[in-house]
Amino acid sequence: MSGLAESLRQSLWGRELSDAEFARAAAGVHERRVPAGDMVCRKDEPVDAWIGVLEGLVKLAILSASGKSATLTGVPAGGWFGEGSLLKREPRKYEVIALRDSRIAFMRRGTFRWLTEHSLAFNRFLIRQLNERLGQFIGMVEYDRLLGADGRVARCLATLFNPVLYPGDGLRLRISQEEIGLLCGLSRQRVNRALGRLETEALVRPEYGAITVLDLERLRRFDGA
Fold first, then answer.
1. Is the pLDDT reported for residue 197 higher than 70?
2. pTM (2 decimals)?
């Protein structure tokens, strides 16, 4: 089995497919390496693929007509996104940017549609994924409007440890303070202060280029008050 096929088989959706379904799915996927800072895809492009992060970290962002940018979410290794636009056949609503050198998988639209039409296991996965995505974005609206910087950093980190959306490396994520700042819309210095408080609260353990979560449930509820 190739490196790409092994990565796909380890994904949440790949584990649930039969051998025949997986072979059909894997044949419709290709990968591309995207350097840090480069575009994975652009807003308003036709959506012709379901996208997964095999290695690295990307952010989904929007850009206003005045040039102001806002990050919607980050997607670490193990996460897949874009199923909503594929199902609705609409142009992409956001741009996707690699925050570090990343391996990105692209499943062709035709393959994705075949799975939705023939695989009960894949459809069950999609329902869980869409439900988790809805909950994630409702939570993001809440913390963006109600919380200060410390709470925003806590909730931003908590979203990256969703076991359905981002089934990556357990409770440890390779991410820098600068990358957290890009996801939260805060400076690296402000993120550093927030992480110091979260460490004092025994919620996370900052490391060089990584974060280990010590109490995920409390991190999800932390409001900074």
1. yes
2. 0.83
